[in-house]
Design goal:
The chain is built from 5 helices and 6 strands; from the N terminus they run βαβααααββββ. It is of the alpha+beta class and about 140 residues long. A 4-stranded mixed β-sheet has the order 2-1-3-4, sandwiched between helices. Strand 1, helix 1 and strand 2 (about 30-35) form a beta-alpha-beta unit.
């Protein structure tokens, strides 16, 4: 395993997130895995991840399986501050997995996006559903 620092903001209930953890490990990295639904978020942390990933706060928000709609967060004109406050209060609102390395930050959806953050990637990887990802 390499000492290249990798942090994965992970939800173990999510197949994409589980695949990303396995893909990172298969690439030879020992990630720090943060179960963000338990650990929660800070406003500053979310702003930093948004800025480093090049994604807006709204782009980091997960709609499916979250209270986003009932909280009124999907309407046009909802401010980033409102979305950030909701994400801090309801960590499940943040999409996953988010991967952070010295090369950058990415929302790894689809899971293959994680490979852009590494120099070392396996020639192929088989996901939980049997799909094979080639380099």
């Amino acid at each position: 395993m390499t000492d290249f620092p990798v942090t994965i903001f992970h939800n173990p209930k999510c197949g994409t997130s589980r695949n990303v953890v396995a893909m990172v490990e298969a690439a030879g990295y020992a990630p720090t895995v943060v179960e963000y639904v338990k650990a929660g978020w800070t406003r500053e942390q979310l702003l930093n991840l948004s800025a480093r990933s090049g994604l807006s706060v709204r782009d980091l928000m997960r709609e499916k399986g979250t209270p986003a709609e009932e909280l009124g967060l999907l309407a046009d004109g909802v401010s980033d501050e409102t979305i950030l406050a909701a994400m801090v209060e309801h960590p499940i609102l943040v999409n996953r997995p988010i991967v952070e390395t010295p090369k950058g930050v990415a929302l790894a959806r689809p899971s293959e996006k994680v490979y852009a953050l590494f120099d070392n990637v396996p020639d192929s990887f088989t996901k939980e559903d049997g799909e094979v990802v080639k380099r």
